[in-house]
Amino acid sequence: MAPPRPSRKRKESVGSVESDYGLEGAVLDGVLSDSGDESGAESEVGSAGFDDPNVDDEEHSSDADSVSDAGDLSDKPNYKVVKDADGNERYEYAEIDPVYDSDDSDAREQTNTIGNIPLSFYDSYPHIGYDINGRKVMRPATGEALDALLDSIELPKGWTGLTDPETGKPLNLSQDELELLRRIQMGEAPEDGYDPYPEMVPYFTGIEEKMPLSAAPEPKRRFLPSKHEAKRIAKLVRAIKEGKIQPYKSPEEREKEEEEVEETYYDIWANEEPQERHIMHVPAPKLAPPGYDMSYNPPPEYLPTDEERKGWEQTDPEEREKEYLPAQYDALRKVPGYGNFVKERFERCLDLYLAPRVRKNRLNIDPNSLLPKLPRPDELKPFPTHCRTVFHGREGRVRTVAFSPYGNWVASGGDDGTVGVWDPNGNLAWSARLSTEEPVNVIRWRPNKDTFILAAAAGEELFFVIPPLCDIKTLEASREILDAGFGYAANGAHATTAVNGFKQDRPAKWGRPGSKLEASGVLLKATVRAPIKMLSWHRRGDFLCTVSPTGQKSSVAIHTLSKHLSQIPFRRLPGLPQAAHFHPTRPFFFVATQRLIRCYDLQRQELVKSLQPGARWISGFDVHPGGDNLIVGSYDRRLLWHDMDLSSRPYKTMRFHSEAIRAVKYHRSLPLFADASDDGTVQVFHGRVVSDLMESATIVPVKMLKGHKVVSKLGVMDVDWHPSHPWCLSAGADGTCRLWA
Amino acid sequence: MDIDPPAQVKVIFTTKEPDLLLPESKQQLLVPADVKRYGLSRILNSESMLNTSAPIPLDFIANGTFLSTSISEHLAAEGLSHETTITLEYARSLVPPVYEASFEHDDWVSAVDVLSPSAPVAAGADADERVASASYDGLVRVWDRSGNLVAVSPPSVASQYRKRLDTMKWLSPKQLVSAGLEERITVWDYDKTDDGSVGSLKPRLELWGHDKRIHSLAVNASTGRMLSSSEDGRLGLWSWSKQKAPPADPECFAFTHFSKKGQIAAPKSAQRGPLAMVKLNDDSPISAATFHHKDPTVAYWTSGDGTVRTIDLTTAKEVSRLATQHQFSCLAALPNSLVAAAGRLDNIVLLDPRESTATTTAMTLKGHVNWVSSLCPSPENDYSLVSGSWDSTCRVWDLRRVDSDPSTGSGRRAIKPAYTIKRQWLEGKKLPEAGDGAKVLSVVWDKTWGIVSGGEDKKVQVNRGRNLLS
């Protein structure tokens, strides 16, 4: 549309050109100053009239420039008329020089006119579009890859890494453009210096308008004093009078005044009485946390079966194990209220209130310090430690063992009714069957070293044996000892009955055991009234005592070997006698009943002492070679040491066995003693007796000898010591004897 | 140097045994580096080297240790190159006391003794190789090397229980002596047929003088003297020739025969008494006596009270006394004038009976786990002995192998056993508790026979005894 209009204008102007030619000079100046448009048109018309088509473009423009610089109107047109393709005229204007005042300052150089299509469409062409004049906008030369790399290293100012879609050049942004972008991003006004919130100027102000909005007179209340204010002031005055409101004082002044006021203190602890250090607060014991069975939906194994439920319902509420029955509900909201809640709380409170809670003082004592200080067992050597020999070859239990007076032979007797004599290396040197039915309960060697006599008790019979292992002289001496009483017995027994006048049986019958036994060395037999369980020799070897617990009146008998005489010292004994021993040095005689041990003086025939070991059933005892101490073993697993000088109560009680103690024995020369128990062990103790009265005996357990098997709840039946060495012999219910050293 | 794959090493052979010494020129040799002990032994036994008639197994000591690997491995272990010259010391190799034979008896074997050309009783003369054993059934048996019973003594005249024999010794190739529970000592004549396969034992003499059981006998064949120690606390010195021995005290045996009431037949053999009786003690449950190993006039005697006494036999007086804490039941006089004593304790104690020494106990031999019943010094050297114990083992001791025992302090020295000989039927089993059923009661070590032991298992066991210790 642009080309036709100028053309019409030009036609009009062409028509008026000739008329206006006359008015050249001053008239035109005034016209121009009034309206610029007309003058422009005039000048254009003028210049168009004198247009030379042959004149060069550039000359024209330079001329035009010079004309415009001069400031006066030139009649040169700023266009050329060319013929277009249709043959019509076409005005071709010169390029506008965009000077400062130019309207065309927005016009850009070489603007791509391809519109809003992607630049990639031109990828295959050397140009990237067309400018306003239809000329191709050539693609800027893209540098080599190395150049691009160098560019990327030395970033030019305002580099963005983007490509301008219009020009295809790298899009660089200047600092101002970046600032503009930042502002837009921050949501600020893009232009600098724009204040979006200017201060508001209100319409109605304290400024007195010349024309007031209302013409009403001043109201009366503005002249009358306020009653409300008077009330308030009266209130304040009252407060000031009462001193509630103080006149203002600066802080320094106030401090000064406060310092002047004297400080007053009160001793609230003046009448305090001393109290216990701690408040004895004992926290209440916590209730156990609820278990699974208290859940509203417990696992099925916690739910009671019908029987349990029935049982629970039938039992008395106080005897119930639980005060509730676990029950299952689908949901928590279906759980009914718990009826016993108040009762339970009440009982809990009652418990806490009634049950006294006491803080217990813990003893802070090292338990080791309470143990008595005993010497180490290593310092107390020698004592038996190892099994040296096992003596086999017996059927049934071995009930009794004994070392010969020299300690070079070992005798044993057992359930098979035989007596055997062994070499210490385990070789059975001699044996004889004393009885086919009765076990050999006890054997003891005559303690004299010049004879070789063994006393063995089987059932009611007491045998005196000379094992044919000794030398001839000893054998002869032993035979003489045994045979000496034969002549005496015949006379003496007669005499005693005559003197005493008793018509009862003699306590024992003495005689030969029969030729078969005599051939094997059993030379003498004495038959008493009841089975003998225990026998003991007097140290001189002339007397021996036998104990037969079932014998009632004749349960304890003292036999005189040289006279073949048996006597019953006690007409009546309180309780069943268990064991009896002679005092090793003095004419005393010890008898143990089940509970008590009595000591009798044989010469004066009176009771000297009565000991109370405190055991329920004494199994055996032994007298220390010194004569002042006793060890007692009991079936209730206790081993008791009595010091007869101290008291009738035991000096020491030892409970180291798990089963009954069968036998106890002192060593005859060394400070050792041992006990045999049904738990299959022999325990060896060191027990030193000191002659000093102020010092008491030291008793140290030193060794537990294990080896015997427990057969039908019987372990070790008897124990004996070597006369001089720390060797120990034990008889086991497993049919073996063992030598320990 | 040879560069063939079997590299060779230059070796210098040395030895401390003079009979095996190589000539100077042959002591250096190039041997293959991969050769081991056996190869080295064969090299040395070869004709060019020692030229032994029978190969002697040898052990080699390199740098103080026995060579158990090849030479090259040894060099590698030592970090030496193959070009170094190594010095190998060789010695006769040791063979453990291998079991050889055992002879079955009817009852416990209480004593064994050997007769062989190398035994001291043979006195250098030619003698058969025989083992005599005394048993608890009262019989003395003589066996030959292949286990044949050559001779048995006639049944004892003593009663059933007193016939037990406790000790027995060869007196000469033709005579034996035995003693036991009875008070007498019996000297037996051992006669053999010409081929030696069958012999007979006849009582020759009865020696009376002790009152009680006799524990041990000691024989000095060179002087024809015999020692006996008895339970009566006396030491008897005897001669076993009918001419030299004095007549017996008639009281001794007359009393016996009278008291026996015809149980014993009239004695067929002659009776003799002791040359001397030394009363040393009142009674001793166990006792032992032995001669000084060189001086036949000196005897050692021990008893149950723990003393070891030195007795001069010419004057029949006690010369010195060593008191110990233990009860000894056997003694052995060692060539280095020490006395080995053992008995009712686990250890064997080496005592120095000389008065000059400060400490009585020279060494302690630890290893047995039960009481030791018998001791015998080695016939080959003067630093080893064998012991038999109730723990069912015999142990061979090398007195040179002294371990410093930290537990006993600096003064005491303890030795551990070199070999332990178990009873053959217990081989591979655990030792029985307390030696139950297999106690060794007697052991003898002879050059020809080896180690002969008898005991509770009713067997006499023979073990190889040569070259046990280097």
UniProtKB/TrEMBL annotation, chain A:
GO terms for biological process: maturation of 5.8S rRNA from tricistronic rRNA transcript (SSU-rRNA, 5.8S rRNA, LSU-rRNA); maturation of LSU-rRNA from tricistronic rRNA transcript (SSU-rRNA, 5.8S rRNA, LSU-rRNA). Signal peptide: none annotated. Residues 73-93, 306-320 have a biased composition (Basic and acidic residues). Belongs to the WD repeat BOP1/ERB1 family. Keywords: Nucleus, Repeat, Ribosome biogenesis, rRNA processing, WD repeat. Residues 1-95, 301-320 are annotated as: Disordered. InterPro entries: BOP1/Erb1 (IPR028598), BOP1_N_dom (IPR012953), WD40/YVTN_repeat-like_dom_sf (IPR015943), WD40_repeat_dom_sf (IPR036322), WD40_rpt (IPR001680). Residues 1-11 have a biased composition (Basic residues). The gene is ERB1. This is Ribosome biogenesis protein ERB1. Component of the NOP7 complex, composed of ERB1, NOP7 and YTM1. Within the NOP7 complex ERB1 appears to interact directly with NOP7 and YTM1. The NOP7 complex also associates with the 66S pre-ribosome. SMART domains: BOP1NT, WD40. It is found in: Nucleus, Nucleolus; Nucleus, Nucleoplasm. It comes from Hapsidospora chrysogenum (strain ATCC 11550 / CBS 779.69 / DSM 880 / IAM 14645 / JCM 23072 / IMI 49137) (Acremonium chrysogenum). WD repeats lie at residues 391-423, 716-741. GO terms for molecular function: large ribosomal subunit rRNA binding; ribonucleoprotein complex binding. Residues 122-384 form the BOP1 N-terminal domain. It comes from the Eukaryota. GO terms for cellular component: nucleoplasm; PeBoW complex; preribosome, large subunit precursor. Component of the NOP7 complex, which is required for maturation of the 25S and 5.8S ribosomal RNAs and formation of the 60S ribosome.
From TrEMBL, chain B:
GO terms for molecular function: ribonucleoprotein complex binding. Residues 9-75 form the NLE domain. Keywords: Nucleus, Repeat, Ribosome biogenesis, rRNA processing, WD repeat. GO terms for cellular component: nucleoplasm; PeBoW complex; preribosome, large subunit precursor. One of its GO terms (biological process) is protein-RNA complex remodeling. WD repeats lie at residues 207-239, 365-400. Gene3D superfamilies: YVTN repeat-like/Quinoprotein amine dehydrogenase (2.130.10.10). InterPro entries: NLE, WD40/YVTN_repeat-like_dom_sf, WD40_PAC1, WD40_repeat_CS, WD40_repeat_dom_sf, WD40_rpt, WDR12/Ytm1. Pfam families: NLE (PF08154), WD40 (PF00400). It is found in: Nucleus, Nucleolus; Nucleus, Nucleoplasm. It comes from the Eukaryota. Its main location: nucleus. PANTHER family: RIBOSOME BIOGENESIS PROTEIN WDR12 (PTHR19855:SF11), WD40 REPEAT PROTEIN 12, 37 (PTHR19855). Component of the NOP7 complex, which is required for maturation of the 25S and 5.8S ribosomal RNAs and formation of the 60S ribosome. Belongs to the WD repeat WDR12/YTM1 family. Component of the NOP7 complex, composed of ERB1, NOP7 and YTM1. Within the NOP7 complex ERB1 appears to interact directly with NOP7 and YTM1. The NOP7 complex also associates with the 66S pre-ribosome. This is Ribosome biogenesis protein YTM1. It comes from Hapsidospora chrysogenum (strain ATCC 11550 / CBS 779.69 / DSM 880 / IAM 14645 / JCM 23072 / IMI 49137) (Acremonium chrysogenum). The lineage of its organism: Eukaryota, Fungi, Dikarya, Ascomycota, Pezizomycotina. The gene is YTM1.
